[in-house]
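Practice problem: predict the structure.
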Amino acid sequence: MCRRVVCTDISFSMSRKEELLEFGKRLRELRHKKGYSQEKLAEIASLHRNYIGMIERGERNITLLNIKKIARALNIETKELFDFTFSTLAIL
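Answer:
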């Protein structure tokens, strides 16, 4: 038997732009930890350097395939790019 579960105790509110900015901040943080420039990361991930900058500024909605490329280039698990989620969401 399947039931739909709805959590009404905690609400998370984040706009699309805020989500893209938080992802970009996390990417920048991880890139800096590795000591990579945007150009170096782009080269390793086989992406354009301008694209990395646009992601970090929250200007691009990155695809799953490119998220995986970046994670491999940083030698991290994909989920590490999303570690910002609970620390930055606004709880209403």
